[in-house]
Amino acid sequence: MKSIRIPYYYVFIAIVIAVAAFISVEIYPFQSTANLLVFIVTIMSLVISFIAFIIAMKTYISIDSVNVISQMEGNVLENENYVASLTSLLKEYNMEDSKQVGAKIFRSLTTRFSKESKTAIEFASNLQYFIDLIVFFPSLFQSSDENKEENVKNMEKILQLIDKRKEALLSISTGNMILIEETVKLIKYVISYQQLIHSKEYNVTSSLLEVRGTMLKNSVTQTVYYNYLGLFYNKKAMYVLRKRLGYENEDFFEIDILKDIHQRIHTLEGEEIELYTMYLIESKKAFQKALESCKEDVMWEGFIKYNDARSTFFLQLIQMDYKGTDWLPLMNEAIIARSRLNILIGDILDQDRKSHLQESFIYQEYLARLVKINLQLAQGEDITDTTQRVKHEAPLYKGLENERHIKTVYTKNFDKIRNYQILIEGYLNRIR
What we know:
Structural class: mainly alpha
């Protein structure tokens, strides 16, 4: 049978009243029944007044505690001018080994959400910190990373901690927790998307559409939302194409696959064309909003314009009369932004060795440069630099194999780059 626990202060009050009553009996002369009745009434009045005082104080303190825990005034998630400090995060997580980076990130997040999220303000700040780190997580979910499975498990634990704390706060007050709830939804979707893409699964779920994006106020959170909304629509369009052309897990940016897509894209029919086009148009709309939200943040500019260039390329394949910005200038702008970011990171960190996260941004620049080359090769176009000047003329592309991003063997822990280098070299050998 479960024992009943009586709060210690109730016991203390009872003892004080008993002692006071005993002393009063000893010193107060009871000469008549009327005197005894007056004494009893006085004691009872005192007890009732004291109990009422305790209850009132306890109620006041409880209400005040709830207000302190649940109040959201001035929280960072509502700050429209908030800007993340990428360089300070890179300095904090500057280890060369991906395992060490992951361990420190997950240790920090565990502490924040298990011990440092007692109030809604603290919880909101820690959610924002998580969102600031979101660009780092893909480097921890690489299929070639031997720590991937461990990182996925650690991420699940963090998400469970976030859910647990969110539910605790919602149980106290739901009136001002909507922003927190939408932010948690966004975080869970983005992490799910990042893990899914690195598992080469392309049929993404629509859970991001459950996030009420217009309620998000913080500029960084808005940027993340619209960027991943654009990626969601992009992947839905690519899934339509995959089903029609019979591709499953193939990389659409390999040269031979690009050439095949270019030749067979017009086999899309009726509703397929409508869906494919609609998804890519929605994708571009979302990327435009993300670009407006990022406030010229060079890191996000590199991500968003690269994503927009890819959606534009595939839209132009089906819309011969496309009147928007061509994919090539967008890709050039993405490359320039990524290159500029890497130069700034190198200047700020100023160290001989490169950290794992710094290498992940260098990888992003390599990726954009090689994807651009693949797209131009697949269409038989001249290879141009970022100012659109011709560097290697079609169809033989003399000297292309000596370009630094192709000739220098890529040995870091991002295997897609080396694969592209090999495929480009092989393609050049075939056409000559």
